[in-house]
Known about the structure:
Layout: H1 3-18, H2 21-33, H3 57-73, E1 79-83, H4 90-107, H5 114-127, E2 130-136, E3 144-148, E4 153-157, E5 163-173, H6 174-181, H7 188-194, E6 203-212, H8 215-220, E7 229-235, E8 242-249, E9 254-258, E10 261-262, E11 265-268, H9 271-274, H10 276-297, E12 301-302, E13 334-335, H11 342-359, H12 362-366, H13 375-388, H14 390-415, E14 430-434, H15 437-460, H16 473-483, H17 494-537
Helix pairs in contact: 3-5, 6-7, 10-11, 15-16
Amino acid sequence: MNKRAIRDIIDQEAAARTLRQPLSAMWRDVVNFVAPAESYAWEDVADGKRPDIVDDSAAHAIDVLVGALDDMLFGDKPYEIVPRFDDAPAELIDWCADASVVMSKAINHPLAAFVAARHQALHSVTTIGTCVMQVTERPGEHLLFVPVSIGRVSIAESASGVVDTFFIRTKMSAAQMADEYGADKLGSSAATALKSTDRWAVRFNVLIACMPRAEASRLQGVGSTSMPFASYHIDIDSEGGTLLRESGYEECPFIGARWRRLEGLPYGWSNVMTSIHDVKRLNNMKRTNLRAAHASVDPAVMLPYGIWKNTLDRTPGAVNQYDPQEAPRGVNIQQFPSGAALPIAIEMEDATRDQLRSVFAYHSIVVPPTPQMTATEYAGRQRELARLLHHAWAMIQTELAEPVGRRAYAILARRGVFAPMPAGLSDADVKVEFKSPLKRAAEMNEADSVLRVMQAVGAMAQFDPSIIKIVSPDAAVRIIRKGYGAPPEMLLSQQEFAKVRAADQQAAQAQQMMAALQQGGEAAQSIGEGLQAVRGET
């Protein structure tokens, strides 16, 4: 790659970073007041000055919301490998069931860090409105999930609105760069630092760019440089930029998701960003109320001028002496009036906190079911929670959960961890299906509805037996099986069931024919005996 091409990538990253500017001030407040742990990665947002945070209600509500989203979206087995078509052969169904188990173990392996990565991604998307996760390979463990702070990332989206271009900035020492890329790949500044005592101390900016590769570039490349997604690692501190590594991926290893899409910008918008002014106001209100409460229990005092020669000691139990000659009538010490409006201020603070929590569906999440709560009431609360979070749930599922599953399956398939496909079949015959607990619950409700309809039809058949024919028993059984999560191999495929049904029909027809023949033989015998009787009489 020539210097001009490297410069072009650096310019693309600069243009992508420019799109962050309209949101920079908003991000600064969100990071400072709600997500201070994220601030280390926000060089262009967090300036090192931290406000005095005295109320963590918003941060706590976000933690609760993230936990609820994780429960709604993911479970122990969020992904299933299923046939792409309904009428799948039995051997493919069996293969999918086994492959799903293998994939589940790989994703949930402790060293894959999927739980931690998705939790941080959900926290980022609920606060900043955007999250990025890297799905890559771990030598010997196959999968590794890495959350990437949006503070280090600039993104761009395709014409269809899909985030497919990522620019990630990271800092590396000269020694780290030499270990990762080779000493011969370093730029002049890093190469000089590598030979000095600064090889670990001085850190350089490295740009990682991942984007769709142009068709012309794919045709010219060989191996990884001809893959659909290009990857470039560039030392941007060197003159004109130094290419450290060029490679590629079959799928984009970085996956970006938004809470809510913004028109004209690739970044997302969150409820925290909408309510950040309330977050700041609540913090100021609590600070004021704390000062007022302190003043109420430890008020300032007024006393005649000139009585006290030294500083007044206001520690609990302190004794302050005065000269009685200077104050023959005693010392008139009075407290400053304070705290009269404190109850009203606290009420306003609580109202603001309650309003803020409602934005994050806090009250629908934290209230546990009670012994007095009926199943209908609890189900209604869960439906309300799903309604409040449906838009975010749908976006996160589409932009994060589903792409993560497809990327993970592709890596595992290339590593050969699955059993060989049945003869005549390929990866094109299967797909990765995301099964959230919420979706599983919806499928179970659907199965219950089918059972209730079947019961109703059975009761109505007592009056009109022909009504049974309105129901498709095959479809009903498959919906019930899917809803209750029973293994798919318990049912015959549609092709196999069709053969069984055809055999049963043929057997029934043969039995009917035998019965007809038997009846015909008996009739012929009766007619013959009748003719013989007639002839005997004549």
